[in-house]
Amino acid sequence: MPDRRKDAMTDGPPLFRKVLIANRGEIALRVLRACHDLGLRAVVAYSDADRDSLPVRLADEAVCIGPAPAAKSYNNIPAIISAALLTGCDALHPGYGFLAENAYLADICEQVGVTFIGPRPETIEQMGDKAKARQLMKEAGVPLVPGTIEPVQTLGEARKAAAEIGYPVLVKAVAGGGGRGMRVAMSDAELVRQLPVAQAEAQAAFGNGDVYLERYLSKPRHVEVQVLADAHGNVIAVGERDCSVQRRHQKVLEEAPAPGLDPAVRARLFAAAVKGAKAAGYVNAGTLEFLLDEDGQFFFMEMNTRIQVEHPVTEIVTGIDLVKWQILIAAGRELTIRQEDCVAVGHAIEARITAEDGDDDFRPGVGTVEMWIAPGGPGVRVDSHMYAGYAVPPYYDSLLAKIIVWGNDRDEACARMERALTETVISGVPRSAPFLRRVVASAPFRNAQLHTGFLVEHADELSPGRDASENTAG
Ligand code: MV4
Questions:
Q1: Ligand 1: does its nearest atom lie under 6 Å from the Cβ of 403?
Q2: How far does residue 246's CA lie from ligand 1's centre (Å)?
Q3: What pLDDT score was predicted for residue 13?
Q4: Out of 42, 184, 190, 407, which residue is the most buried by the measure of CB atoms under 10 Å away?
Q5: Nearest CA to ligand 1 atom 10
Q6: Running along the chain, 474 residues long, what does each successive block of 10 average in pLDDT?
Q7: Please, which contacts does 45-51 make with residues 24 or more away whose CB atoms are closer than 8 Å?
């Protein structure tokens, strides 16, 4: 039996001796698979709660980094660095969440001779400060939502700025994020009332009362662009994703390409993303988030300096293995993919299955998975660390599985997603799959009437008991 780890990627300088995977769940498994595809050995760092997990079982080595609470394990920088050094790792992949966007971890890695598989610490820091990121993109000529760059201090200042921007305006907390601390003002009179409320709210929530103003876009789409940038100055826009179907700022369904996007708008979006990433001196995989309005105008929101949960939809339509490229780029390899190669073929959709009851306001639940029948067949990929008998730990996010489907066109992808979600059986823990199936089967989703308020707007028609054909076991 030949060792698949010997023959892969033997051209060019050696990649890494061993990679530490400082994460858990499906993304730890995804990174492990990329390592194995590249012929690399990997060590999974795990907490007490994940001792029996699938990534630990499939890893070449595993090392315990502490007790179940993330603060003592997955967010514990000294424990993670020690694990890397003790196991002889010369690279570290942070996955997403936890320390993935922690500039300090990236910095320490550099200092102890472990390659951080991600951007430089300075880039992480810069993009982590949303005001700095906006300033940088503005200077680079990437469009921002019309508004103030600097915080507005006084009511007089705010009214003057709002009159220039044009109503409705959105008051946003400088220190905010995830939609917290936003207030809409439809008119000057409303701004007079809302500004002090927004400032007080921001002060209470973030310990910083600074707010700024933007034109309020009424039904924007969330469209983000995946970029890859190597250490030699090559930057490409791999593809865009539409992630408008969100619930309380948590993405629920993502797809690629963005339905109905005018090719000319896509070309401008890609050019803006490449320009922004170049201006940031970006290296590795990253994502620029934009709001897209109804007339095809787009505006930069923020840049994520990590691999994202929804990266597979881009992989599926482009055939580009993004996690593999993260590792190759970190090892100093030059991109061999050119911009012209980044063409979406067909359509991909991802559904996030969580241990939350989609029929009961996404009530989270813990417990042990009794039965898990994964969907399959043509055009179906499942990224999951779940197995029958798996105990869902209460300490971390409740993502159980990502179901990703491909179709020749969006209709076929939707039909396959409906099939996949119908085949899916998860028992023992609450799950969101039946709700997702209703969303995918709904007329507004089929018609791609996507915007960030989609689930709120259609809440009634997506509530349970409206779908006679539902598989109650699933
Ligand atoms: C907006 C907006 C409309 N107009 N900005 C919410 C999270 C934050 N990062 C940006 N957000 C929004 N900013 C202007 N000028 C609407 C949202 C928004 C949203 C954005 C992306 C994904 C889901 C969302 C859900 C509600 C509101």
A1: no
A2: 11
A3: 65
A4: 42
A5: 179
A6: 39 85 98 98 98 98 98 98 98 98 98 98 95 95 94 95 96 83 93 94 91 96 98 98 97 98 98 98 98 97 98 98 98 97 98 95 93 98 98 96 98 98 96 96 98 97 68 39
A7: 45/20, 45/21, 45/73, 45/74, 45/79, 45/80, 45/83, 45/84, 46/73, 47/72, 47/73, 47/74, 47/395, 48/73, 49/393, 49/395, 49/396, 50/24, 50/393
Q: If you take atom 7 of ligand 1, which residue's CA is the nearest one?
A: 179
* Residue listed under structure tokens 């907490």: 47
Which residue has a Cα nearest atom 24 of ligand 1? 452
Q: Is 251 in the pocket of ligand 1 (CB under 6 A)?
A: no
Q: Catalytic: 306?
A: yes
- Residues constituting the chain: 474
Is 179's C-beta closer than 6 angstroms to any atom of ligand 1? yes
Contact predicate 205/199, CB 8 Å: no
pLDDT value for 212 = 94
> Peptide bond before 430: cis, by omega within 30 degrees of 0?
no
- Say what the pTM is: 0.95
Crossing angle between the packed helical segments 130-140 and 263-279, to the nearest 10 degrees: 110
Cis previous bond, 257, omega within 30: yes
Between the CA of residue 393 and those of 47, 49, 396, what are the distances in Å?
A: 11, 6, 7
